[in-house]
Amino acid sequence: MLEVAQRSFHAGYGRMEKDSPILVSITARDDGRRLDESGRVSFGSAASVADGTPRIEVHADHRCQSLLGFGCALTDAAGRVFARLGPERRKEVIAACFGQAEGNAYTLARTHINSCDFSARTYSYDDVSGDYALEHFDIGADREALIPLIKAALEQAPELEIIASPWSPPAWMKTNGEMTGGGGLRRDCLATWAEYISRYIQAYEREGIPIWGITVQNEPLGAPRWESCQYSAEEERDFVKFYLAPRLEGDGLSHVKIIVFDHNKDVVERRARVILSDEAAARCVAGVGVHWYSGDHFSAVAAVHRRFPDKFILGTEACIEGGVELGRWDQGERYAHDIIGDLNAGAAGWIDWNVLLDKRGGPNHAANYCDAAIIADPAADRLYYQSGFYYIGHFSRYIHKGAVRLGTRVAGTRLEAVAFENPDGGRAVVVLNADGREAGFALVDGDAAASMELPGHSIATLCYPGR
C-alpha cells in the first residue's frame, strides 16, 4: 500500500488545482487504523470556508529550515535483543524502521562511543590506565552486538547518517576515576580524548560504518549512576576549538559534523550562546543537539534558531522512562507533540532513543529501564509495535530529507500541525489530535481548501501536490 502511494507521491502532481486530491494517511487509537492510506479528500475553494471554521493554514511564502530527517538509536542493548530474535523477525525490524518503500524510512541513527546505560556492562575501548598513546585502543567490545545491528541497518539503508555520542571517557581519563557518576575530563587527557574520538571514527570506517556526526558529550550537565561526564559550557567550547576540531581536521575527518550540548532544552539557549558566540568555536560546530526530558521549551529552541540560523538544531534523544507498558497510546502522542513543537521552532530533525528493547525495557546495566517504539519478546520471537512507531512514521515516511518547512497557522482548534514542502514539490502536513473528541477543520493552502475530520486520539499526514 505505502509503496504504491510513495511512487505516485514522488512522481509529482504538477501545479495544484482546486480539485487536486489529498492523500490522507491516518493512525487512530480506537478504530485500529495504523498508517492507513485509504483516505482521499479533494480541494475546493478557500472562499467557501465559512467564517469561524477551525482551520489549519499553510503559508508557502514563509519558507523556513531544511530537514535532515528522523531516526532512532542503535545501542548495545538493542543489538542484544536483536540478536536473540529469529532471522525473519530481525529482517522485519530492519525493514520496518529503515525500509524506504514500506517502512519508516529513517535517515538518521544515533549510537554510543564506549558503553552507555543501555549496554550490557560498562566498558571502554582502552582500559589501560595511563595509555596516553592509546596503544591498547580496540573497539572489540562493540563487535558482539552493536556493530552487527548497525551493519544490518546500513545494508537496508546505505545512506543512513550515523551520529555517535560518548557517555564517558575511560575511567582513567576522569577526575572521579570512574566512568559512572559524573566527574569531568582530566586536563592532562584533553588531547588524548580528542585522539580517542578520532580513532573511534577511523575504526568504525574500517568496519564499513561511516560516521556522519558526533556529539561532544551526552548530557554534559548530568551525573547519573550510569556512564557520564560533566562539562561546563566553557569547557565544552574550549575542548571543541582547541582539541577536538583540530584533531579531526589533522586526521582528515573535518567532514564529520560536530554537534554540541546534546542535553535538555530548558538551558539550551545559554549553552548555545556561550559556545557559538565564540567565532573560533562556531566555525567548528555544525549543530546543537537537544533532549526532551525537561519539558517542551520550544521557545528556547526557537531562540537558538533565531540567533544562530546557520547551525542546525536536532532532537537527538527522547523516550518514556520507567519501563514498558504495552499498548500505551500517550507514547505516540507525546512523540508527535514534541516533534511538531521542535520542528515549528526551527529544529531540523528528531531521533528516538532505542530502536528495540525487551519487554522489561532493557537490557540496561543500571536498571534505568525505558519504553521503546518496538518491543520484542525473543523467547516467543514476537514483536510489539508501540504507538510511537506509527506516530514517528507519520513524519518520517512522508517528509523527506531536504524538505523545507512552510509556515502554518492553527486557528480555532486544539489541533497541532506542521507543514513541509518536499524536494519534489509535494507537500506534507502532519496534524495531531491528542484530545479524546473528534475535531473538524479546514486545511487551507492559498486559495484552495479541504474540509475533514480527525477522530479523537489520532494523527494524520496530508499529502498533496505543491502549487
Summarize the structure.
The protein is α/β, with parallel strands linked by helices and 467 residues long. It is 27% helix and 27% strand.
Outline the secondary-structure elements.
Blueprint: H1 2-11, E1 21-28, E2 36-42, E3 44-45, E4 55-66, E5 69-73, H2 76-84, H3 87-98, E6 108-113, H4 146-156, E7 161-166, H5 190-206, E8 213-215, H6 233-250, E9 257-264, H7 268-276, H8 279-284, E10 287-291, H9 298-307, E11 312-317, H10 330-345, E12 349-354, E13 357-358, E14 374-377, E15 382-385, H11 387-396, E16 404-411, E17 416-421, E18 427-433, E19 439-445, E20 448-454, E21 458-464
Parallel strand pairs: 4-19, 5-6, 5-12, 6-7, 7-8, 8-9, 9-10, 10-11, 13-14
Antiparallel strand pairs: 1-2, 1-21, 3-20, 4-16, 14-15, 16-17, 17-18, 18-21, 19-20
Helix pairs in contact: 2-4, 5-6, 6-7, 7-9, 9-10, 10-11
Keywords:
alpha/beta; Immunoglobulin-like; TIM Barrel; 8-stranded parallel beta sheet
Q: Please indicate the percent range of residues in DSSP E strands (runs of 2 or more).
A: 25-35%
What Rg is obtained from the alpha carbons, in whole angstroms?
22 Å
Based on DSSP secondary structure assignment, what is the total number of beta strands? Answer: 21
Here the CATH topology of the largest domain equals TIM Barrel
**Overall average pLDDT:** 95
Question: In the CATH classification, which architecture of the largest domain applies?
Answer: Alpha-Beta Barrel
